[in-house]
Every structure is written in structure tokens, then in C-alpha cells.
């Protein structure tokens, strides 16, 4: 058993704390305390102030930790419990690292724990930190194999950097080529992060709640031209059910696709890719109208994409949209009934209004929509902070408060249309988004959440109408942040974000950071979505031979470089004196004069003085200086010798070397 | 433990070792090249592979690309460390210099000179003879190092320490690079000196009377002489020294007329080794007293003389008695 040197023990401490740091945000308090106390004990032992702990002390600690873990993680068996257990083990091991084997266990477990940190944070900063952490752990690993008598702290660090520097290109090659397969077994995810986003039901005030947040909803890139703002309707859910209070998804049929919904279009599909943030809900977004479901999801009866599993981490998917379409030109009686459903006897005044419009317009459904728009435009106010509604809510909104947000307008219009006998539904999703010109992608945030209406016409299918556009047309043509900039309720939960809007350069910085994050999400965190395309771009055609070449060629190149640097001998940092002397001797060698292996500097200088009379003075000075250094041991002797060597070299340069 | 960790025994490893030693001619100076360096992962290296596998499982099951990246980075380190470990041994020059004689049961020292490859460091090199204790050293600031590597001397005669094992696990302990060198070094192992009460008197050649040891009575004491370098400590007049009068040597009346012979024939008891041990003890004793002594072994006669040369001659003759003459 090899004992650890003191330097190695300190390196273990550094590696341990660096590994612990990213987990501090979620670890139970007592575990953090333990992780600080045990290295403290080790330091006291290290400095010789405390003796090694008795076995009973260790036993008590182990039992206490087991008890603590059992109490803290009563039901959870997720990664948090596992990582806590590993960290507790590390903290306990900290007390008794004496031997090489103890340190090995500590460092290997630390490497695994530093990998688990990515389950909690995945930002660029986290990745950089993990790299730093790895430098420390590898240095700690090197320190236990270093000469125990060597008290050089920096040496392991340098070795670690040299190893990592060459491992990076190898990592890059593996990262690009290694095939990504799905999970081998299902694992419990970290559920403690509450996400904001659309919910599967809408009370009229719900969407205005979302405008208080500037959390990212998703980002999208397009294969063709980006659609204009008026066409950026991202559908996420279709609410067909109304219970007099909230709109919700149709319980029968909407969660399952019973039959294909007919979608007819002559337009070319617009292909795009979405990087969707974790929401812990299964619904995705798709640009009106999705022609096919993204991978891992299906299209509901309302033609909205629904994933088989909740989005528990950031995902990316490809889809395509038909901007010009006819959706479901024929409606079955079953569906017709669903989209005409209204709660018994509610909101009599609204029903009355709809029936009056119906009588005045005859069979012209579009005229009824126009009448509603005119009404909204003339007498309604669009606001983020509408008054609370109660009782017959549609009546209260249409005839009393007349203030509302997109949810109110969409709900009320659908109610009116259904009352007039027109099948209609509320569609919830996002509208608009911020286009990043530089990186060519669209950022959609929670405050872009929106609700609109689709009504059905024979042969034309579902027609999208946005009653909000009648009240506040700028909501559709402008970005939400510009529109609401003066509204106190907008971004009320994130005051810092509000500040940023006021300032042009702040906005620019924010955009750049956002663009960087987007590239990070797209190319690193969701690389599996890009892998095939990238490999195709790189290789032309993806086959096994080319993949093997893509892996082997860079691999061999890197290894050859490492071998060349490691084995070819790097230049040791040398004494300037030695270097100057070598240069001078090389100069003489070029002119055909070599110093004999046993010839002293003095003897050589004297010999050269006879062959190079022009520089005899300098050579004599050199001989004298050399003698002074060797025999007189004068403190300034080396400096004088260096000067003499340099003087000789300058004199030598004036003599031409034979061609 | 992985088999690269095992010390060579009568197994595949031993056969491999013998084969690898025989591949190269015996040479006093050997430069370690890729032809004679072997490298395999250690137990810790295999543990590291298990860790990589666990991290890969984590990455796959959580579809976490950063965990993938960490796994691949560590895999890169694993691969790059092969070259670092190899480079820590390659280019090293090992010169076998000499074997230092010893008495049976002691440790024979073998001196080796290690020279670093130009502009490269060698750290934590471990050298040992088969079954011996390893010596670990660094070649960083010093470019050349003199090492004395001991080997147990269990038998009298020429000691062949076997092939020299040079190995290293630097820098991360994931790999072990090693080589075996047949240095051709040998050391002479003298019989172990064992004191016996008195050497029997031996019959001189040609009838001359010979006494084994002459007792030193006070009548033989002649006087004191100033201590000179190389003088025997047994003859130092310690009482005089204690009086603060400086170091002096006691001078005795020489045993000039009598020759001392250590005669094999006069040792009657004991085995060959016991006899040799006894002769050895007395040879050293006479050497220390600076009395000339001769040796008579079956088939070998060394005329009486004193001094270091005689000591070495006698001890060598004793060491090789009954052994095949090797040089």
C-alpha cells in the first residue's frame, strides 16, 4: 500500500470540493454540512493536530449518514437520491484517504458524480465548469502517482492539462461519430423543476398569466423563408369543450387519433425544426397546419401535435407546415356535435345576440364572424389585467366588462359562433416570436402565448380567425414585447427582463447571448437531432466505411501528434547561459570549427583566438570570464560570462560563414 | 487483479518474460525502444473502463449529450495516457556497471546507471530484480542517475540476479509499461563468516611449523606508533586515545618467522560450507590484524601475504570452491 504524499492529499481535497460545488443548489443541507466537516477533520489530521479517528467514530458517522439519507429521500429513488448517496460516500471517504487505493476510489466516484451534475444543469457555463473540474480531478489522479517527496503543486496540473488538451480532439471525433441510441431502460427524471407553459385547459385569464414570464418556450429554424408575423400561428392544443367556466380539450377522441383528418393543399410544405424547452407536458407546437406529426408524437383530432411522453427535457424535432390549406372539409355528425356543444342554459344574452345575428345574416356564416369582429373592434379594450368575471362569464365579458385578453375574445367568439350553429373551437398556442436575423432563428417565449378561433365551413374546412386582431391588430403584427412594453403586468415576474427592453445595447447583448444558447442547445444538447444531417454534410453519403474513416483518420492524426510531442522530446526550459553558449558553438561549427568533446571553454576560446584574430579580444574575455566563474566563484560571474558569450557571438556574426 | 499486475511466476507471464529476454542479445548498455517495451492496462485502468461504461450508460439512458462528452473526454484521456506512460519509459538508457560482492545471506549490490532520453523526463521508474524489492526513482532534474540495486545472496558463488525489470505506471496509473533487461551482471558471494573458537593448527608444506594464530602476550608489545590512515582499528591504543593523547597504534613483535596457513585439511569437523565459513572468518580476522596468511584448498594454494589484494584473492577462492569456475 503506497501512502499518499501531502501534496496528493491536498489535491484530493481540491478535487472533492470542485466536484461538490455544482450540486450545492439542491443537496440537502445536512449533507453539505457533512461534506464541509469531514474534509475539515482530514485537514486537522493532516496538520497533525488530531489523531486518526477511532473506528467507533467512523461507524457512528456512517450510521448517521444512512439514517439521514433514508429520512431525506423517503419515497424518491431518482437520480437525486443516488447522487446524494455517492456524495455522502465521498464525504465519509474524505476522512480516511491515506493510501493510493483510497484516493483512487475517491477520484473515480468523483468523476461519476461530476457526470451526474449534467442531469441538473446543462448550460455552457456548467460545461466549462465541468471541464475545469476534470482538470482538477486528473491532476489529483496524477498527484497520487507522483514522487511523494516532490513538493511540486503545479506539476500535476501541467500534466493534467497536457493530457486533456490532446483528449479534447479525440472527444470531438467520438462525439460526432458515436451513434445515439434511445434509453436502454426508463429512468426517473428530475421532477422538481416546475415549468411554465400552456395547460390543457383555459380559463379566460390563464394566458395573461403567461405574459408575466419571459421564459423560453421554443426556438425554430426554417428551411425556407421565414413566414411573416401574421402567419406565425403555432398551434399546440385545441379546446373543444366548454363547461361555462373553462375551455378544455375534448375528452372523447381528441387525445387519440381515431382517423386521419383530411388536409388538402397545393402549397409546398415549409420544413422547419423546433428546439422545444422542457415543459413536463406532452403537447408540442406546430406551425399552422402540420402535415405530419413530428417523430415520437401524433396529431390529435384537432391537428395538434401530442407527444407520447411528457417533454421532461429539452427536445428537438422536425416538422413541416402547409401555410395554405383546407383542413377537414367534411365533418362527421359526431364531430359536429362536439364542436357545437355548449353548457345547458348558460349566458342567455350571448345566445340571444348570436341568434339575432343568424336571423339577420341568413346562411352567411362569414357575415356572423364579421359582425362579431365589428363588435369587438368598436367597443372592446385589449388589456393584460381584465377585471374578474363571475356568473355567466361570456355574458359578463360581452355586455359588462368589455375588457379582456386573447383568451376572453377567443372564448367569447367561439361561444357566439356555436350559438349561431357554426362548429367552432378555441386553438391555444403561440403567436409571433422574435426573429434573430444574424443566426436566422425564431425565439418564442411564454409571453407569446396566444389563443384564437377556428370555425368550420362545408368544403372549406376549418378557417382560422383571430378575434384579438380585431381589437388590437398590432398584437398579431408586432412582437409581444414591443406591444406590452408599457403595461405594468407584462413581465411582472421578471423585472430584470423588463429593464433590458429599454436599452438598445442591452437588447443586442441579450440577443447575442440568446443566439449562443441556441447554437449550444441545437449543436450540443440536442446533437442527436443534427447528427444524421451533419454526417451527411461531412461525408456525402453515410455508410460504415466512411464513418470508420471519419473516426480513424482524425484519431490517428491526434495520436501521431501526441506521440510526436511526447516522444520527440520537448525542449526543456534551459539556462539562458547554456542556450547562448550552444548558439555560439553552433556558429563556430558552421564555420568549420568544432569544440572537441573534452575541450574546455577556455581551451576552445584560446584555439579559436588564433584562427579568428579579428575577434581575439572577445575570445580572450570569454576565456577569462569562464575561468572566473569556474574557479573564483564570483557572484556576478555568470552575468559577465553571459555578456562575454554574447559579445563573441556578435563578433562572430560579422565573419562570413563559408557557403 | 489484472494479470499485468502480477509478479512473474511459473506461468504464461514467466514464459513471456523468458521469451522477451531471449529476444535481445545480452548487452551492458540498453536503450529502451518500442521493441522491448510492453504496455497493458492495470487493475486501476480496468476500473477506469468500468467507470467509462457507467458514464456511458448514464449518457444513453438520460439522453444527455454533455454526459456523452464527458465520457468521450475521459476515453480520450485513457488513450492519450498510453503514450504518456510509454513515453515515460522509452528512450531511457540503462547501463549495467558492476556487481558488488557480499557474504552469503547478505544483499549483493548491483550498480546501474540510468540516462534520461534527451529533453525528456522519466518519473517514477521502478527497478527490481525478480523477487527483489523495487526501487522507485525520478529522472527529471538530473539527467543521469547511479542506482545500487540489491539482490538477496542465498548461495555462495557467482550470483546471477536474473533479468532486470524496469516498469512505470506514471502518469495516471491506468497503464503499466515494463521491460526486462538481461544485464549480464554478476556478483561474487563469499561464504558467510562464522566464528569458531580456534583454528586448528595446520601442518606446513615441507615440514615447516605453522601456527594458526599467535596469542598476543604483553611481552610482544613493542610500543606505540602514530595512527596513519588505513590502520586497523583493532590495534588502536584506545586507552591512550582516552587520555587525550591522540590516536596511536599498538606495535607488536611481528610473527615474522612464522607463517600462517589456513589449511582446508586442518578443519576436520562440519560440512563443506561450515568449513568454508570458518576459514572465511579467520581470513577476515587475520586481514584485520594485518598479518600475512596463506590459504590451502584442495587443488589451490595461495602463498601467505597481507593486504586487500590477498583478502580478495582468498575470499574469491573460498567463494568459488567446489563451484564451477565461471568468469
TrEMBL record, chain A:
Keywords: Membrane, Transmembrane, Transmembrane helix. It holds the Pfam family TgpA_N. InterPro entries: Bact_TGase-like, Papain-like_cys_pep_sf, TgpA_N, Transglutaminase-like. The keyword Transmembrane applies. Residues 398-469 form the Transglutaminase-like domain. SMART domains: TGc. The chain crosses the membrane at residues 7-24, 55-73, 103-120, 126-145, 166-185, 547-567. This is Transglutaminase-like superfamily protein. The lineage of its organism: Bacteria, Pseudomonadati, Pseudomonadota, Gammaproteobacteria, Oceanospirillales.
UniProtKB/TrEMBL annotation, chain B:
It comes from Marinobacterium lutimaris. This is Uncharacterized conserved protein, DUF58 family, contains vWF domain. Keywords: Membrane, Transmembrane, Transmembrane helix. The chain crosses the membrane at residues 37-60, 66-90.
Amino acid at each position: 500500500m503506497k501512502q499518499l504524499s501531502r501534496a496528493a492529499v491536498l489535491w484530493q481535497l481540491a478535487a472533492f470540493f470542485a466536484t461538490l460545488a455544482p450540486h450545492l443548489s439542491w443537496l440537502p443541507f445536512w449533507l453539505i454540512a457533512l461534506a464541509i466537516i469531514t474534509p475539515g477533520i482530514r485537514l486537522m489530521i493532516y496538520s497533525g493536530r488530531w489523531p486518526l479517528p477511532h473506528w467507533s467514530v467512523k461507524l457512528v458517522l456512517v450510521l448517521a449518514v444512512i439514517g439521514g439519507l433514508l429520512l431525506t429521500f423517503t419515497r424518491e429513488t431518482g437520480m437525486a437520491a443516488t447522487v446524494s448517496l455517492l456524495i455522502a460516500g465521498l464525504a465519509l471517504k474524505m476522512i480516511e484517504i491515506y493510501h493510493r487505493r483510497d484516493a483512487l476510489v475517491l477520484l473515480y466516484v468523483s468523476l461519476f458524480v461530476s457526470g451526474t451534475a449534467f442531469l441538473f444543469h446543462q448550460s455552457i457555463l456548467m460545461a466549462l465548469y465541468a471541464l475545469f473540474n476534470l482538470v482538477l480531478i486528473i491532476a489529483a489522479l496524477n498527484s497520487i502517482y507522483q514522487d511523494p517527496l516532490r513538493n511540486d503543486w503545479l506539476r500535476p496540473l501541467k500534466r493534467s492539462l497536457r493530457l486533456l488538451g490532446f483528449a479534447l480532439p479525440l472527444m470531438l471525433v467520438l462525439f460526432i461519430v458515436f451513434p445515439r441510441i434511445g434509453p436502454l431502460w426508463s429512468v426517473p427524471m428530475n421532477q422538481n423543476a416546475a415549468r411554465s407553459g400552456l395547460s390543457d385547459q383555459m380559463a379566460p385569464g390563464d394566458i395573461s398569466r403567461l405574459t408575466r414570464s419571459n421564459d423560453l418556450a421554443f426556438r425554430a429554424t426554417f428551411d425556407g423563408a421565414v413566414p411573416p408575423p401574421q402567419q406565425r400561428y403555432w398551434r399546440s392544443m385545441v379546446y373543444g369543450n366548454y363547461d361555462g367556466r373553462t375551455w378544455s380539450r375534448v375528452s372523447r377522441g381528441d387525445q387519440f387519433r381515431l382517423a386521419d383528418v383530411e388536409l388538402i393543399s397545393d402549397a409546398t410544405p415549409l420544413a422547419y425544426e423546433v428546439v422545444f424547452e422542457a415543459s413536463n407536458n406532452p403537447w408540442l407546437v406546430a406551425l399552422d397546419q402540420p402535415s405530419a406529426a413530428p417523430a415520437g408524437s401524433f396529431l390529435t383530432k384537432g391537428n395538434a401535435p401530442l407527444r407520447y411522453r411528457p417533454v421532461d427535457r429539452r427536445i428537438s424535432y422536425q416538422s413541416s407546415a402547409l401555410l395554405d390549406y383546407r383542413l377537414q372539409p367534411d365533418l362527421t355528425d359526431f364531430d359536429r356535435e362536439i364542436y357545437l356543444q355548449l353548457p345547458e342554459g348558460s349566458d342567455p344574452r350571448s345566445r340571444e345576440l348570436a341568434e339575432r345575428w343568424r336571423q339577420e345574416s341568413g346562411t352567411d356564416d362569414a357575415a356572423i364572424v364579421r359582425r362579431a369582429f365589428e363588435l369587438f373592434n368598436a367597443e372592446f379594450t385589449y388589456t393584460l389585467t381584465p377585471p374578474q368575471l363571475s356568473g355567466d362569464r361570456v355574458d359578463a365579458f360581452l355586455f359588462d366588462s368589455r375588457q379582456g385578453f386573447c383568451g376572453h375574445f377567443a372564448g367569447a367568439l367561439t361561444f357566439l359562433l356555436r350559438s349561431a350553429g357554426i362548429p367552432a373551437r378555441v386553438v391555444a398556442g403561440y403567436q409571433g416570436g422574435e426573429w434573430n436575423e444574424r443566426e436566422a432563428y425564431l425565439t418564442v417565449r411564454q409571453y407569446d402565448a396566444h389563443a384564437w378561433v377556428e370555425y368550420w365551413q362545408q368544403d372549406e374546412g376549418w378557417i382560422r380567425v383571430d378575434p384579438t386582431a380585431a381589437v388590437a391588430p398590432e398584437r398579431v403584427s408586432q412582437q409581444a414585447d414591443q406591444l406590452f412594453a408599457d403595461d405594468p403586468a407584462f413581465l411582472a415576474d421578471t423585472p430584470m427582463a423588463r429593464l433590458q427592453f429599454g436599452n438598445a445595447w442591452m437588447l443586442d447583448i441579450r440577443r447575442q447571448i440568446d443566439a449562443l444558447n441556441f447554437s449550444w442547445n441545437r449543436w450540443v444538447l440536442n446533437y442527436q437531432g443534427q447528427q444524421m444531417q451533419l454526417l451527411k454534410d461531412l461525408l456525402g453519403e453515410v455508410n460504415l466505411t466512411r464513418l470508420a474513416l471519419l473516426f480513424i483518420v482524425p484519431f490517428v492524426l491526434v495520436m501521431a501528434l501526441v506521440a510526436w510531442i511526447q516522444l520527440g522530446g520537448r525542449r526543456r526550459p534551459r539556462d539562458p547561459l547554456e542556450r547562448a553558449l550552444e548558439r555560439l558553438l553552433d556558429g563556430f561549427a558552421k564555420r568549420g570549427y568544432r569544440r572537441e568533446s573534452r575541450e574546455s571553454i577556455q581551451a576552445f576560446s584560446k584555439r579559436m583566438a588564433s584562427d579568428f584574430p579579428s575577434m581575439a579580444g572577445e575570445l580572450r574575455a570569454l576565456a577569462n570570464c569562464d575561468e572566473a566563474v569556474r574557479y573564483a566563484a564570483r557572484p556576478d560571474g555568470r552575468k559577465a560570462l553571459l555578456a562575454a558569450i554574447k559579445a563573441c557571438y556578435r563578433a562572430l556574426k560579422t565573419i562570413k560563414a563559408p557557403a | 487483479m489484472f494479470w499485468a499486475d502480477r509478479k512473474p511466476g511459473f506461468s504464461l507471464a514467466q514464459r513471456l518474460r523468458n521469451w522477451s529476454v531471449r529476444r535481445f542479445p545480452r548487452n551492458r548498455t540498453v536503450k529502451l525502444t518500442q521493441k522491448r517495451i510492453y504496455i497493458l492496462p492495470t487493475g486501476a485502468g480496468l476500473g477506469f473502463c468500468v467507470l467509462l461504461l457507467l458514464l456511458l450508460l448514464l449518457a444513453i439512458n438520460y439522453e444527455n449529450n454533455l454526459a456523452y462528452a464527458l465520457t468521450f473526454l475521459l476515453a480520450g484521456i485513457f488513450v492519450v495516457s498510453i503514450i504518456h506512460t510509454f513515453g515515460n519509459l522509452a528512450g531511457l538508457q540503462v547501463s549495467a556497471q558492476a556487481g558488488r560482492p557480499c557474504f552469503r545471506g547478505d544483499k549483493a549490490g548491483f550498480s546501474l546507471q540510468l540516462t534520461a532520453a534527451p529533453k525528456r523526463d522519466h518519473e517514477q521508474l521502478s527497478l527490481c530484480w525478480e523477487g527483489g524489492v523495487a526501487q522507485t526513482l525520478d529522472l527529471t532534474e538530473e539527467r543521469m542517475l547511479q542506482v545500487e540495486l540489491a539482490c538477496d545472496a542465498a548461495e555462495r558463488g557467482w550470483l546471477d540476479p536474473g533479468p532486470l525489470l524496469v516498469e512505470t505506471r506514471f502518469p495516471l496509473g491506468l497503464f503499466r509499461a515494463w521491460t526486462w533487461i538481461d544485464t549480464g551482471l554478476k556478483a561474487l558471494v563469499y561464504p558467510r563468516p562464522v566464528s569458531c573458537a580456534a583454528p586448528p593448527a595446520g601442518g606446513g608444506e615441507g615440514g615447516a611449523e605453522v601456527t594458526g594464530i599467535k596469542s598476543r602476550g604483553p611481552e610482544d608489545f613493542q610500543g606505540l606508533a602514530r595512527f596513519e590512515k588505513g590502520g586497523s582499528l583493532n590495534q588502536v591504543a584506545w586507552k591512550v586515545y582516552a587520555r587525550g593523547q591522540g590516536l596511536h597504534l599498538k606495535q607488536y613483535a611481528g610473527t615474522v618467522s612464522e607463517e600462517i596457513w589456513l589449511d582446508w585439511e586442518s578443519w576436520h569437523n562440519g560440512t563443506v560450507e561450515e568449513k568454508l565459513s570458518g576459514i572465511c572468518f579467520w581470513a577476515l580476522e587475520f586481514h584485520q590484524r594485518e598479518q600475512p596468511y596463506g590459504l590451502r584448498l584442495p587443488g589451490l594454494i595461495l602463498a601467505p601475504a597481507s593486504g586487500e589484494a590477498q583478502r580478495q584473492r582468498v575470499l574469491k577462492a573460498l567463494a568459488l570452491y567446489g563451484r564451477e569456475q565461471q568468469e
